[in-house]
Amino acid sequence: xxxxxxxxxxxxxxxxxxxxxxxxxxxxxxxxxxxxxxxxxxxxxxxxxxxxxxxxxxxxxxxxxxxxxxxxxxxxxxxxxxxxxxxxxxxxxxxxxxxxxxxxxxxxxxxxxxxxxxxxxxxxxxxxxxxxxxxxxxxxxxxxxxxxxxxxxxxxxxxxxxxxxxxxxxxxxxxxxxxxxxxxxxxxxxxxxxxxxxxxxxxxxxxxxxxxxxxxxxxxxxxxxxxxxxxxxxxxxxxxxxxxxxxxxxxxxxxxxxxxxxxxxxxxxxxxxxxxxxxxxxxxxxxxxxxxxxxxxxxxxxxxxxxxxxxxxxxxxxxxxxxxxxxxxxxxxxxxxxxxxxxxxxxxxxxxxxxxxxxxxxxxxxxxxxxxxxxxxxxxxxxxxxxxxxxxxxxxxxxxxxxxxxxxxxxxxxxxxxxxxxxxxxxxxxxxxxxxxxxxxxxxxxxxxxxxxxxxxx
Length: 458
Prior knowledge:
This protein is an alpha/beta fold and 458 residues long. It has helices at residues 2-23, 86-89, 174-183, 200-213, 230-240, 242-252, 276-296, 313-323, 342-351, 376-393, 431-443; strands spanning 40-42, 55-57, 63-66, 78-81, 141-143, 146-149, 152-153, 156-160, 189-193, 216-220, 258-262, 301-303, 331-336, 355-361, 398-401, 407-410, 416-419.
């Protein structure tokens, strides 16, 4: 009996040691110093006994109202506050704001532990049909610091539509949105989010609509927000990212409606304060996944999906070295309208690669989703016009607004929801007229991006 107890003690010690080693890979307490409890909703009643308890900040308030907000009637609609569907919030852009973006101040981090770490380093093999090959010149390519299509420079203007592929967004609303954007004659690219678990058939239909209406897409394959930490970039992506990337890229690699693949929406080392160790893992992740995509699909461009260079020296160095990868074709920036982001644009100049603004944001709406005042939409449009002039004169290749929304929809669950936040663009926004005029300049060859960014203060 004593012999048996001694062996049992050895086993217990070994197991505890192994658990301690695994847990040390992650931050064990990502809870921020202050979390406003009145702005959180718990997902602990999801019915999954193994799932972590996650609290989601309700920063993206759904509004049920009678009447559509407008510039001329900014405050006369009747409405009632209405909590949005929790599952519709899970991948909302403003659930967690990176402090770098300065959108509404510092937002709380997610409370709760991330999923258990991956213990296997094996990388599942993709199911492929045939080998990829370079095909005719129907894809947009990078030649030096220019985007090219069939021997001519390609510039783009457009919007984000993060809700388009979400499960709650109704199928019947997809084509009207794409059709409207195309008919503005100022939008030729839409950035969409296609994350693990999303519907492949829906993405197929969206690409078909792009072919029908002349719209290209930037397809973003992952989202940073909610639980990704250093451990995710170190090893979890092997099972949580690569299978999705392989399946998606292999299936859609022949679609010229895709302008580029984007590795992730706003990757960051926020919880680790931009540490050297975390940025090293992020670099290795970007290299591994972009190499995987290029191997499967040599025809499409790749961007990382970054915001800005970052606050720390390690983040700034990593911003450049990720974009210096041979498998990354285009430099990505997210910034507020009018912020020139010269440091990031100088990275593009140094690397001789195209550069685009993946999200340009400008606050125009209040919490009830009415314009802040009767002049703000026109003021925003004029400010964006100035930003376009400077940006494209200094080497910008594309510029996307955050973000277009249909406003009120009836979700797949049958609920009436108002999709809105402080930065959205709805139908008939005057900015679309600005885009139409500027896209005409592109097509008529009036845009000359010959000026250097310069080294004065950003």
